[in-house]
């Protein structure tokens, strides 16, 4: 019927996104509780913290304690985020985390200037030097990251040629440093994507770099999260970022905190019902989603945690 | 790229669904205010009330006053719902409403027994007699309606052969009464559909009745509303029911009132961004969605009313 992949990988970003975004305070113990709960779901990768300035992101002031306190499962890759060399040093000091070197760019230079205070030229140099630093510290996994790949609040629609040009830049930086680009993340940072634009952009990148693995980072700010993920699946995309219960929020939209990343359990539900293997035990993931809601103390956007899974209904019937 | 239609029709069901579902009380004046606001959006069809037992559905005790009080636009078709002959008589007495004769069945006999207290055999007779009655009253538009077309909480997955068999029954009832079947609604009554099952079921019905127009009635209980609508669009479906702001709720799921029908403005936004004409002025529809939220006095599930349209962002940039 289509090119749906047989199996996909989901990178769970809920804890990192959520505890950064939520006003809190949320105790270290409860952060660990959520991550441990997620470790029991079959998820193979969980982003568990952010080494950022505690003055700017008070929700991650306890990142060292969280990362030290989680009960690791051997089949789960625990990843972390950092934004500068100080953060990298702290991440390097942590035990049992998987470090991914990011080569970050954007399809909108305006967004990059606003978000990172530099243009494409400068960014190329910065990324080049960072990859050299990552390599020096023994990091072996490299993820290209294209922000605003489907449009930009400050630049509008972005041409596909820009996505291709910046993907070329990412490749060049990897090549010049003699490292392999493992995956390219196409991020719908400000929720401009539609199913059709997902197909166009993924198709254009795939046509030029047929062997490059693509992962989609989607936001549900305008309600198209799952539709966009489905369009990605139709294009054979087999890797997605998502957040349990829809934890986290998008800082760019004037919404009521209800629409951040696409929701892990809704994505996992859709895949399971279409016969796509995610490795996830949906009922356990729904428990984790309800736990997330309990921890933050308010409703979170994911739907299946309210609607219930179909397998639970099927089980009652037999 | 695919069989996306160039233009689609949206049947707005928000007022009827919402004022039935909401605890209220909501004044007649405010109900009319929402319908009038929707009349200004370019929507070509709005379901404006339900002639039901006021003891069972107190939210529609004032249906006569609402229907009499709306300010009609010539390009808008105002439809109503009724469930029995008493309701039909009340609907017939109303001025300026477009009456659709429904030929209702389900792909799950268990659901039909629970919902309507009769099996397939009895239903066929009931529907046959109703169509005769509709014809006698001069009703010329007939909509087949297949509930639980994608699965059933009480029967589980339903075979496509059942959908085909019951579509055959609907055709037979129309034929025997010498009336034309204008459209067939495939309803995902209990939110069992996935994009792939939408394609399979629509494809199977289309294969057998290539000239039959199909409309999709989708619920967002499990977060797949827009993804399922997109799959329908990919199959060339050019007609959808939806509710402004996501008004209304699904009585079958243990959720927090957050997931009824798919949301009109999110669907209209997705279509507009993909170049599919809905006839709708999205900014006006977003105003109506915010008005709906104001009227019911709590958050409603639609996302674009929070996230904002992309055309509004584009306009700021130029």
Can you characterise this structure?
The structure is a homodimer of 318-residue chains. Residues 251-255 of chain A have low confidence and may be disordered. By secondary structure, chain A is of the alpha/beta class. The first copy, chain A, has an eight-stranded parallel sheet. The first copy, chain A, contains 13 helices and eight strands. The relative contact order of chain A is 0.15. Chain A has one domain (9-317): Alpha-Beta Barrel (TIM Barrel), CATH 3.20.20.70. In chain A, α8 (195-208) links the parallel β6 (183-187) and β7. Chain A has helices at residues 14-21, 28-39, 63-69, 85-93, 109-116, 120-136, 160-176, 195-208, 225-234, 264-273, 282-296, 304-307, 310-317; strands at 9-12, 45-51, 77-82, 100-106, 141-147, 183-187, 214-217, 239-242. Chains A and B meet through α8, α9, α10, α12 and α13 of A and α8, α9, α10, α12 and α13 of B.
Topology:
Two copies of one chain form a homodimer.
Chain A: E1 9-12, H1 14-21, H2 28-39, E2 45-51, H3 63-69, E3 77-82, H4 85-93, E4 100-106, H5 109-116, H6 120-136, E5 141-147, H7 160-176, E6 183-187, H8 195-208, E7 214-217, H9 225-234, E8 239-242, H10 264-273, H11 282-296, H12 304-307, H13 310-317
Parallel strand pairs in A: 1-2, 1-8, 2-3, 4-5, 5-6, 6-7, 7-8
Summary, kept brief:
Two copies of one chain form a homodimer. Chain A contains 13 helices and eight strands. The first copy, chain A, is α/β, with parallel strands linked by helices.
